[in-house]
Specification:
The complex is a heterodimer of chains A (56) and B (185). With 56 residues, chain A is mostly helical. Chain A has helices spanning 3-6, 9-13, 17-43, 48-53. The longest helix of chain A has 27 residues, at 17-43. Chain A is rod-shaped, with a radius of gyration of 21 Å. Chain B contains seven helices and no strands. Chain B is flat. Chain B is mostly helical and 185 residues long. The relative contact order of chain B is 0.08. Classes of the chains: A mainly alpha (56), B mainly alpha (185).
Amino acid sequence: MTEAATRPPAAQKRLDPGALLLTALTIIAAVMWFFPVYWALVTSLRSDEDTVKNSA
Amino acid sequence: MLRNRRTEILVAYILVAPFVLLYAWMFIYPTIQMVRLSFTDAPVIGTGKWIGLANYVHMFKDPTFRKAIWNTGYFVLLTVVPGTAVALAIAMMVSRMKGWLQSLILSAFFLPCVLPVTVVYLIWDWLTNLQFGMLQAVIEPLAGKAVNVWRTIPWFMPGVAVITIWWTNGFSILQFQILRIRGQR
């Protein structure tokens, strides 16, 4: 029998707020890390004028 | 499956040989030649006479050399220590994840490593541009005004350090991940 099957249903559903916060922080950090590459890809498809006028 | 230990070792040598030969030819041989040349008065092209340590005496008296040593030390301090700490923190956070989410997050951190230096320079030059750079929104509150990062001496080296960490950290994170996997075996 697996560990998940022996655990009571309430324990299976309980979420650890610390773990959730760490996961959220990791995802935010990854998005920030990837952003310059994403920005470069998007900007490469725009004209210079458009990039200068609407830099965001 | 290899039949015995000797065959395994032979195959390993054959697989490693192309790299070792290329590395010896393209890196080790020129390095030895460069050191040998440093003891001569050779011009850029051609050979020269043996002059002993005269080039080194000249180099240590040159203030530009001392400045270069200082700048290199400062750059190492700004990149190696924070870079290792950031990579370790990210690797620990990523190691808690599993499955496709872990792969996606690792890819996001590793992706800058595949970019050539010219592309990295162009991206960050645009992002920090004095007039329309997006990062000026972060720099301006910190400095109290818009800063031309690449033309302001106190900002330049930390700026290069941040980019270097961003660019190369994927490899460090992967190394920490490999160490963790090896540690579990």
